[in-house]
Amino acid sequence: MSTLRKICPRRNFLLPVLCVLLMLSYPGAAWADIGPKPSVQICFTGMDPDVLCYGTLLSERDSTGPASVWNGDEEFALCPEGEFKIWKAFVDYKDEDGFFFLQEFWNCSESGQLAWTYYPPSTFKVLLYYPESGTFCVSPIYETYAFDSYYTVNLTGLPGQAASSGTNAVLTAVESYNYIPELRSLTVRIVLTILLELLIALLFGYREMSVLAFLAVVNLVTQIGLNVALNVINYHSGPMAFTFYYALMEAGVFILEAVLYANLLHRFSGQPKPESANRAVGYAFTANAASFAAGLWLAHVIPGIF
What pLDDT is attached to residue 262? Predict the structure, then answer.
């Protein structure tokens, strides 16, 4: 107990901690198959929009999510109306590495893109089919590298583009994830959070430059660590995992900041340690609760910020 009193001079410190733990442990309803799903999105450059082209992703496995290889039974043929010849061409395609066609395909000449946004294969090949020439173009083997994996394929000079018959051509896909928006949103979140928490510090009566400087340094370190970790989670696991870990890690940041403020802030404020610690814990709880709520609000109003 003596050690606890040294770390947390006021028992009031335990109240906000218990509140956070209770919120995190509160049971909630769960539904299967909700929230965003991983995706693989291919952008084709140099595609001739006047030449009909269909595309799919061949899978290393014979199924993924609801998509699966055709088992030979007409009842299980997932062929869109009016697209039987295209579907049959993909079904009859024999990949040299034994990859499977899972009965999902798109008209790529209309959009210049192929977007598999619901349980795409994690190990795949890009396969294009030009029905006017009967030509296939296939890529080497690729793997998803993020929750949303982006690739760019340059089709300039491929035989299918000229609608000429001949041997199948090889596609080359290049990872094209745009990291600039991620860095921009990371910077904006950190700056906005620090400004918000410093504003709350003024409302709590912290006006000494030494105190504000100390709070700014602590917030800078914790917010950089928190937001970088959240960006990595969002990149690899998506927004559902981001939201879960956001709440958990924000609680951890509050506890860390509360302990630091309770034990060190009095050195900068000139107040007696017990009074300073009590106010510091209240500030840490309020500031982190406000930044957490603001983060969720921004994610709803400006989804791109995360």
Answer: 92
Q: What is the mean pLDDT of each run of 10 residues along the chain (306 residues)?
A: 44 47 44 72 93 96 95 88 94 96 95 95 96 92 96 82 54 91 87 94 93 95 93 90 90 95 86 81 94 80 58
3-class SS of residue 204: coil
CA atoms of 179 and 177, how far apart (whole Å): 6
- Among candidate residues 15, 17, 21, 18, the one with its CA nearest the CA of residue 256: 17
What is the rounded distance in angstroms from the CA atom of residue 9 to the CA atom of residue 278?
8
| 194/87 Cα distance (integer angstroms) | 55
Q: Residue 253 is encoded by which pair of tokens?
A: 């940041």
- The pLDDT assigned to 228 comes to 92
Instruction: Tell me the β-bridge partners of 114.
Output: 42
Please give the Cα distance from 38 to 20 (Å, whole number).
31
116 phi and psi angles, rounded to 5 deg: -100, 100
List the one residue out of 131, 133, 195, 198 whose CA is nearest residue 165: 133
What pTM did the predictor assign? 0.78
pLDDT score for 8: 44
CA nearest neighbour of 153 among 166, 169, 133: 169
Label the pairing between strands 135-138 and 169-170: parallel
Q: How many CB atoms lie within 10 A of CB 129?
A: 23
Q: What are phi and psi of 179, to 5 degrees?
A: -85, -15
User: Whole-angstrom Cα distance, residue 245 to residue 230?
Assistant: 7
Task: Name residue 113's beta-bridge partners.
Answer: 43
Cα angle, residue 125 at apex, residues 122 and 128 outer, rounded to 5°: 135
Q: Are 189 and 178 in contact (CB under 8 A)?
A: no
